[in-house]
Specification:
Number of strands: 18
Shape: globular
Distance between the termini: 7 Å
Radius of gyration: 21 Å
Structural class: mainly beta
Number of helices: 2
């Protein structure tokens, strides 16, 4: 829904000219009914709210070469009504203000890092059962983050290429999420002492999108005093539309931690595809292997699904997903991007069946 926000500035004795800003209100209601099995003691029916949200966007054209823009976005639970223990958090998702023009765009705030955005070419099961983050974002090797206090520059598009660079300043705020905080909750304010210059995060990303090709490459580094410790990540993702109906994709990700004894290096390799059976119905599948530099700690994520669009803003889908765990791994296909937060059982395969509905407005 679009509204026009009228801002009146009053002078000393007269009313100044009227300034207009276009303000958009948008949202997403995304829920699913899931049957989840941890392979051991937990076999239950669940209702999950999957990164549902409400947001506000605004932009104002300053002149022919400069536009100001802003966004405030809040996660909303369509299953429990609250987002945290008190139900009072606000602006928990991408929230920023910036300027854009022929030079590209600059924004500041808290939003998906360029490294996180680099998964887009293969993000076929985003916020659903089977989301790739269940294997790419595990333990302390977390890079799919929405960091606070971030300044980001994105270049103009040139022959299909765009470049991004971001710096996250974490003085007084934890970088990423502590182990006892789940995604969707606000950053935790701390009273850190010592050298605050060693808790930053740095991002570089390059994307190419033209015709049937969609490519991304990203690098991210966290300094030694960032939450979860000093670590580096590289991500490559690609998608290619073989035919108007068939889209194939691949991912390669290498993650390294300074404390590689407690947090062994991990490589994730994956392939995915989706195929349009009709103009409104699509089938998709993916396979990802998380190869960990530790004994019997690997895991594989397999997901298949079918989606049908009842209308442009409304879709329904059915997914089956499983994580095949080695004896020292306990990952599941359901913990990322969803309100379901059931832990896996070490050494057991976890699987689920999901019936979902997503309404964008």
């Amino acid at each position: 829904m679009k509204k026009t926000l009228l801002v009146l500035a009053l002078g000393a004795t007269t009313i100044s000219p009227v300034v207009f800003a276009d303000v958009g209100i948008y949202g997403r209601a995304h829920v699913s009914l899931d049957v989840l099995d941890d392979g051991k003691d937990y076999q239950e029916l669940n209702l999950s709210s999957n990164s549902s949200r409400l947001g506000f966007k605004a932009d104002t054209k300053i002149d022919d070469s400069l536009t100001a823009f802003a966004q405030i976005e809040q996660e909303v639970s369509f299953t429990s009504g609250g987002n945290d223990a008190n139900g009072v958090s606000f602006a928990t998702r991408d929230t920023f203000v910036g300027l854009k023009g022929d030079f590209g765009q600059v924004r500041v705030g808290r939003f998906d890092s360029p490294f996180k955005a680099a998964r887009n070419p293969i993000n076929f099961f985003g916020d659903q059962l089977g989301d790739i983050r269940n294997v790419t974002r595990a333990g302390n090797l977390r890079f799919d983050e929405r960091n606070a206090n971030t300044v980001e520059y994105t270049s103009p598009k040139f022959n299909g290429f765009t470049a991004s660079a971001a710096l996250s300043l974490h003085e007084g705020v934890v970088a990423g999420y502590p182990a006892n905080i789940t995604a969707g909750t606000p950053p935790v304010v701390t009273t850190k002492k010592g050298d605050s210059k060693k808790d930053k995060a740095y991002d570089l990303a390059l994307a190419y999108k033209a015709g049937s090709v969609d490519l991304t490459a990203a690098y991210e580094r966290y300094e030694e005093n960032a939450a979860r410790g000093e670590r580096d990540g590289i991500r490559l993702a690609a998608a290619y539309k073989l035919t108007p109906e068939l889209n194939i994709a691949a991912l390669a990700q290498l993650l390294k931690h300074d404390n590689d004894t407690a947090n062994p290096d991990a490589t994730v390799l994956g392939v995915a595809a989706d195929y349009a059976l009709t103009a409104k119905t699509t089938v998709r599948g993916q396979y990802l292997l998380r190869d960990v530099d530790a004994t019997d700690a690997n895991a594989s994520l397999v997901a298949v699904g079918v989606e049908h669009r009842l209308a442009k803003p409304l879709r329904v889908y059915a997914n089956f997903a499983t994580v095949l765990n080695d004896k020292n791994s306990n990952l599941t296909p359901w913990q990322q991007g969803r309100s379901t937060n059931i832990n896996g059982s070490t050494g057991e395969d976890a699987s689920g069946l999901s019936l979902g509905l997503r309404y964008d407005f």
